[in-house]
Amino acid sequence: MIDSPVQFKQSADYSLQFDSKLPARADVVVIGAGVIGVCTAYQLALSGLKVVLCEKGLVAGEQSSRNWGWIRQLGRDADELPIMMESIRLWEQMRQEIGEDVGFRQHGIIYLASTQKKLAARESWMRIAKAHDLDTRMITGAGVEKQINGASKQWCGGIYTPNDGRAEPWIAVPAIARAAQRHGVVIKEHCAVRHIDTQNGSINRVVTEHGPVQCDAAVLATGAWSSLFASNLGLYLPQLTVRSTVVATTPVPDFYTGNAADEEIAFRRREDGGYTLALSDLTEHFIGRDSLRYLKSFMPAFVDDWRSFTFGLPPAGFPDGWRTTRRWTADDTTPFERNRILNPQPRKSAVSLLIKRFEQRFGHLPGLAAAHSWAGMIDTMPDVVPVIDHAPGYNGLLIATGFSGHGFGIGPAAGKLVSDLVQGRPVAYNLHRFRYSRFTDGSGIDLGPKL
Hey, which end of the chain has fewer CB within 10 Å, N or C? Predict the structure, then answer.
């Protein structure tokens, strides 16, 4: 079991947890064993399909285990919210269904505001909550102090959803994978998918580094690597990545058992007695060739929040690295094999800033320090909502990517949704917002929520 993301190493020497033999044929091959791929494979298996789940590195080895651990409806895009509400229901039954405790706890989430102007901006989201009968409440500064022991007077109020929660990502996703395996999913780590072959426009096999698997359908759920993979297939998928640095503190007194964020810092209680901290006003992007290629699509997001952006150059081997191979055949060694786990280094200045901001808000906490820190690369779309759609020109290929930092919480319901789409089942959601063609059909960029 993965105990902490700090154990991940950029190495081929780690112990594989899932190393099943690939079958000659499956009904569906799921590419990528992050939370979306794992939940999709699980749901497909529940429907009785023969499923292969291929992961180039480690199950939950990248952003799916490195995220904040938030499971929230609060602040969601209006079209995402119904899916997220279903996901809450699935999280609530997770422990009983898979037989493992994934750390899911419902202690609520608060978006805090330090000024009346910012509080009014938070309040504007209430119309979305009311339209979906979501129990979300405005709270005053006194209400914040009632929720958060020792909260200073710096917050004049906030917006609060009491049945939102959290889970421990590096525990939850591998646990769901084990449940999928028990239901017959063949899971193979260290198994990069190199190519998807078609016959008369329909998928007929997926070619991996360990050989081909005949199939009728495939799901592309490769997170930060999706744009690179899609580009080799001739598909235009404007997705970039941003780095998020996260700190786990040492155990400190429990002054708030839920999750909260203001304009500068996000924090939530951990099962080990510490808090997970992240910056809510920093967007770090490494400029690569795709940054220029997709500049026009991402410009509205940059203009909307330009003060939070910092820039650098991508390390070697990153999906949008300047020397990363962009074209390959089924016989070639791919970028996915050269970089088994995308393992960015945390930003050192962010680590110290997080501890400083935490202390500024809550004063002296005995024993407070950064126990460890890590970073992940978040796959994001120009409008900050995912693509969940069939790929043009590849009958049988479903794309599910670009969850823009929201994927962990929505994962169980997104997996169920993708499973239904693969099987041609009717779905209860309006998916127009998540269509693949929205970046090429002349539509304007309709920005979703920042958090």
Answer: N
Q: Please list the residues that pair with 312 across neighbouring strands.
A: 286
Q: Which of these three, 162, 179, 203, is where a domain ends?
A: 162
Confidence (pTM): 0.96
pLDDT band at 451 (very low <50, low <70, confident <90, very high): low
Q: Are residues 138 and 272 in the same domain?
A: no
Percent of the chain at pLDDT > 90 equals 92
H or E stretch covering 194? strand 193-199
The answer to whether residue 9 scores a pLDDT higher than 50 is: no
Q: Which two tokens stand for residue 156?
A: 């004049």
Q: Which of 170, 172, 18, 163 is nearest to 95 (CA)?
A: 172
Q: CB-side exposure of 1: number of CA atoms within 13 Å?
A: 13
Place of tokens 């000024």: 115
The label of the residue with tokens 């400029």 reads 287
H or E element that contains 378: strand 370-380
Q: Is residue 376 part of a domain?
A: yes
3-state secondary structure of 416: helix
Local structure of residue 281 (DSSP, 8 states): S
Q: What angle do CA 326, 63, 52 make, to 5 degrees?
A: 70
Residue ranges of alpha helices (H) inside 124-158 are 126-131, 141-147
Please say whether the dihedral angle defined by the alpha carbons of residues 291, 294, 298 and 299, taken in this order, is positive or negative. Answer: positive
Contact 214, 25 (CB under 8 A): yes
232 vs 42, 190, 197, 437, CA distance in Å? 27, 20, 12, 18
